[in-house]
Q: What sequence folds into this?
């Protein structure tokens, strides 16, 4: 006789959700720890590639570029994104704010001592790999005033720098409060090809082509020593904005607003991949 009653599931036949979930969770954890080294290597590789070929964040350590770039004492110095691509196709032009390696005749008074703690040294080295500024880098930031083939001199009757006998239009020029709004004069100088004459925007608080190496030819910067063009201030947030590259040798006709914001847009586009990459690595560690 056939029993038509439905078969009753035995307790042992019922699948356990806990038993099925455990291997999956263990597998996920195992996969994470296997992927973590690869993720870190890829992140560092991308960061190194970006800072070598595309752009890097630099710290402003001095007041020489006030008020375009803040680097004042006892304040948070600006961090600027430096474009390394532009000068692969063209040379620096008058008005560009550039970061460059200090020539042998230049002396940097703002280099900090290397950290003595091995842990601090290691962290500083790791930071330099992903583009964080190092305190002991012998790099400078100044504005290009004259290029190879031009003759520069200061000053005319109205205390203006002249290039090839024509006065410059310098709306970015800054004088510290309480100091005379007069530039220090210097002798006429013909700039050789492949060299740049640079000045700080804080005109009387900057040691630049006028005084480095005692001035003259020793104060010039080789084009080959230029690292890149400062495009945008990325930190602090209250100072976000593009870096002026007004050409002082021409009187601007007034560009449309959208064109003036192009450097800012390019800078933000270039800065975000670095910030997002760091955030993703940090989130992975937290998990």
A:
């Amino acid at each position: 006789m056939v029993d038509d009653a439905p078969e009753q599931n035995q307790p042992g036949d019922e699948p356990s959700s806990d038993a099925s979930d455990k291997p999956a969770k263990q597998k996920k954890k195992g996969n994470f720890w296997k992927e973590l080294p690869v993720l870190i290597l890829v992140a560092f590789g991308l960061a190194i590639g970006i800072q070598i070929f595309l752009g890097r964040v630099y710290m402003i350590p001095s007041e020489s570029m006030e008020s375009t770039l803040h680097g004042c004492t006892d304040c948070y110095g600006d961090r600027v994104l430096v474009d390394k691509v532009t000068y692969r196709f063209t040379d620096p032009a008058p008005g560009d704010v550039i970061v460059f390696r200090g020539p042998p005749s230049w002396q940097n008074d703002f280099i900090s001592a290397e950290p003595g703690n091995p842990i601090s040294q290691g962290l500083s080295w790791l930071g330099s790999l992903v583009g964080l500024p190092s305190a002991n880098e012998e790099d400078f930031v100044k504005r290009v005033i004259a290029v190879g083939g031009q003759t520069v001199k200061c000053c005319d009757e109205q205390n203006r720098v002249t290039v090839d006998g024509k006065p410059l239009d310098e709306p970015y020029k800054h004088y510290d409060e309480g100091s005379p709004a007069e530039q220090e004069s210097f002798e006429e100088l013909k700039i050789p090809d492949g060299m740049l004459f640079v000045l700080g925007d804080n005109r009387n608080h900057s040691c630049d082509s006028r005084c480095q190496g005692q001035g003259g030819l020793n104060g010039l910067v080789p084009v080959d020593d230029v690292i890149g063009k400062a495009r945008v201030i990325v930190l602090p947030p209250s100072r976000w904005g593009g870096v002026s590259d007004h050409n002082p040798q021409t009187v601007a006709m007034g560009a449309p607003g959208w064109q003036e914001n192009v450097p800012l847009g390019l800078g933000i586009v270039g800065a975000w991949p670095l910030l997002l990459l760091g955030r993703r690595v940090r989130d992975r560690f937290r998990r």
The two ends are 61 Å apart (CA to CA).
